[in-house]
Structures
1.
Amino acid sequence: SQQGEEDPQALSIQEGENATMNCSYKTSINNLQWYRQNSGRGLVHLILIRSNEREKHSGRLRVTLDTSKKSSSLLITASRAADTASYFCATDDIYQGAQKLVFGQGTRLTINP
Amino acid sequence: EAQVTQNPRYLITVTGKKLTVTCSQNMNHEYMSWYRQDPGLGLRQIYYSMNVEVTDKGDVPEGYKVSRKEKRNFPLILESPSPNQTSLYFCASRTYSSGNTIYFGEGSWLTVV
């Protein structure tokens, strides 16, 4: 099964609201990353959080990591229509490294104007 | 500009007709990988390469071949395509010095009829 699993699968909110997406994983990891994908396009790296970090910020993005629960959350504050995309978490197994970077199925975020 | 370039971007082909999807990166990255993306299944790794002449199977290698004769190129070969290989394909690369951030190509939509 997939290492990273996002929740919810789809999220629709009004512009200006905050969007929160969650990711759960199964094994011990070196780090966890979040990627964004506009419809049918390549994935773009958003943020990386290492296993010894608990929270990280980048602009309107806030990522948390709870290694005891094997979960992470991505918060997008003050959402904009341009944030409409699919968001994926990706994890690397502590034993296998980047060659086994495993992606979840993604959360499809829709921002309504 | 740092890029991962895939060609073709769109292709419709017939069952059994050999095809190659090319991938080239201009970042001198050691690691390259191929993924396929299917609805409900997320991104699944097909093959990866840690460096020139070093390739290994990912999670779904059946029906695919790869080669890594040069650092910048990592073509994906479908010797005898079948309809279940209809998918969106992504090439990706990274360098070990940049952590685990992966750079993706724009994707190749492949339909096998």
2.
Amino acid sequence: GAGVSQSPSNKVTEKGKDVELRCDPISGHTALYWYRQSLGQGLEFLIYFQGNSAPDKSGLPSDRFSAERTGGSVSTLTIQRTQQEDSAVYLCASSQTLRNTEAFFGQGTRLTVV
Amino acid sequence: DAKTTQPNSMESNEEEPVHLPCNHSTISGTDYIHWYRQLPSQGPEYVIHGLTSNVNNRMASLAIAEDRKSSTLILHRATLRDAAVYYCILNRLQGAQKLVFGQGTRLTINP
């Protein structure tokens, strides 16, 4: 498919476990974003990758959250020692190098911490 | 990040035009105005963006005030499928292209 792909689509985990969420951006897109959306809330920016530049991590809520992007393509968001307040939909988006082009979003991963 | 202000909710009728306002009084000269929408249970989707001139595409029109401190997204003939949360975002030309979403406007379309 040509869109942004996220996996898994749903994840249920026990409190205290680590989870990894995957994002496959659109081929050729150098910008990649992660957002989090809690139930009934707006989108909360987490982290932004642009090419080979240092990522903008200013939105990560705690040091339990980290993300990497390998080879300028696939990205993984890792949450360590999950807490119930981490339950949310995690959305990934990608866009082309040129500024002010549209960002394409994936369908998200719904994370539930029990 | 430059802030935008939108009404929390709006309601309109099917097949009528809808005008969704956005205030961005602290906009700088190099900020583009972007609109996204989020349909229920889906990720956001791009609608339209502009800098100074009004813009039209197949989904909507964007009317930008002369002083650029406000803009209006226009859906010319709303359908039930247009029911969504609409986000107005300022995107800086300089620096990181980081899309920061506010709370948006929840649009309800009545049949």
